[in-house]
């Protein structure tokens, strides 16, 4: 599996459309579309889970899903070596149900969905 990432720029409040990641002994460096360095404190790096939702869209850390049966929103996170869904404090393996749920947003652009 090829590792895929997306990056949310907290300063600009948007996902970067095009970016470059450089990894060296000092860490991970991210350059935006204009080749400006995005400061580590201003970015959130999210990895693809390698799974897709009910609509066959790729699922990333930080995505929000909706379960219409229980009328609950949950979000995807990496926890103790695996990707999981967290529903109001309850955690379950992401792989068990993600293909039956739609991604409806993400925690950076739609945090109100989790309130």
- Give the topology string: H per helix, E per strand: EEEEEEEEEEEE
Please list the strands of the largest sheet in the order they lie side by side: 11-10-9-8-12
Biggest sheet character:
5 strands, antiparallel
CATH architecture: Roll
- What do the pLDDT scores average to? 94
The CATH superfamily title: YopX-like domains
Residues in β-strands, percent: over 45%
Describe the structure.
The protein has 115 residues and is mainly β. The chain has a single domain, classed as SH3 type barrels (Roll). It has no helices and 12 strands. It has strands at 5-9, 14-15, 20-24, 27-31, 37-38, 43-52, 58-60, 63-67, 72-79, 82-87, 90-93, 103-106. The strands form 3 sheets. Strands 11-10-9-8-12 form a 5-stranded antiparallel beta sheet, with no helix packed on it. Strands 2-1-6-7 form a 4-stranded antiparallel beta sheet, with no helix packed on it. It is globular.
